[in-house]
Q: What sequence folds into this?
């Protein structure tokens, strides 16, 4: 029986680089996550009491230390399988090879879906933890005031300034580029081209996300499509330390003809298992604005909760 070709091994480095380049929420990915049991993440947190006045008669004030854990259960488990007849591979000059299937699927399906799931799950956790997104109409006149308000609130809540990320839709990015009072450094090349990119505000990284990946809820029955109840998120300010985003398991394999029982062809399999969680004690590190609408519908059954 022919040996199977394990593309997790052969493509691991390439796929990691691809996700780093093309996954727009890659900066939220948490490294070295510890999983417990089959499907849980255990997040430790410690609560300690503060200083008390010292007595010079000797001795110290006894404080309190409380160690506890938050458990989060992974729920986003996805897979797909493709069968490609041997002659289809031969007659397309390897266009249907495993490398091409992998690249096409990851680029057009897996990576966009991961962004969509992560940002919608961030919103879901945000609202489940009794937080409320704003619904301000952002314009060139008020967008910097909105940004400054969010930054000030995070500063007051002692959210680390370094590392904050501002996710915006392309339309909001255009609003920022044309915002009143913004000071922009224009870069003129020898060809007299003008670079009007705004890559950061007050050293906060700006990431453009297609609006299709920034809905509040999706139906994941096949791929991802906005739920009927979905709202449009247009701006999110987040610190990565406020979330846990990780994959527990990733599997890609190509079964050669003769190594399986499903016919004369190549059997391609892909599975990804992971999730994103907003940490209960770090809610201050997330701000969300929705495109204004008349109502705020609740997620429908079957959409990500």
A:
């Amino acid at each position: 029986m022919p040996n199977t070709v394990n593309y997790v091994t052969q493509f691991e480095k390439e796929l990691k680089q691809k996700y780093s380049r093309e996954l727009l929420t890659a900066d939220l990915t948490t490294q070295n996550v510890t999983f417990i049991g089959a499907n849980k993440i255990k997040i430790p947190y410690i609560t300690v009491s503060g200083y008390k006045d010292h007595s010079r008669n000797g001795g110290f004030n006894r404080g309190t230390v409380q160690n506890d854990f938050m458990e989060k259960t992974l729920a986003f488990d996805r897979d797909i399988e493709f069968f490609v007849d041997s002659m289809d591979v031969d007659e397309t000059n390897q266009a249907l090879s495993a490398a091409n299937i992998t690249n096409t699927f990851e680029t057009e399906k897996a990576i966009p879906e991961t962004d969509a799931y992560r940002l919608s799950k961030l919103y879901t956790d945000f609202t489940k933890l009794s937080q409320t997104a704003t619904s301000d109409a952002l314009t060139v006149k008020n967008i910097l005031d909105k940004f400054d308000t969010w930054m000030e609130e995070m500063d007051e809540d002692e959210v680390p300034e370094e590392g904050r990320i501002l996710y915006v839709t392309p339309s909001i990015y255009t609003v920022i580029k044309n915002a009143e009072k913004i000071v922009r450094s224009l870069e003129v090349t020898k060809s007299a081209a003008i670079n009007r990119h705004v890559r950061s505000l007050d050293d906060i990284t700006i990431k453009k996300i297609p609006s299709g990946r920034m809905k509040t809820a999706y139906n994941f029955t096949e791929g991802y499509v906005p739920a009927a109840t979905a709202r449009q998120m247009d701006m999110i300010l987040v610190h990565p330390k406020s979330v846990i985003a990780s994959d527990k398991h990733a599997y890609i394999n190509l079964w050669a003809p003769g190594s399986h029982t499903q016919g004369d062809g190549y059997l391609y399999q892909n599975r990804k298992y992971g999730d994103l969680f907003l940490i209960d004690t770090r809610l201050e590190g997330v701000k969300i604005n929705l495109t204004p609408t008349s109502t705020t519908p609740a997620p429908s059954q079957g959409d990500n909760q």
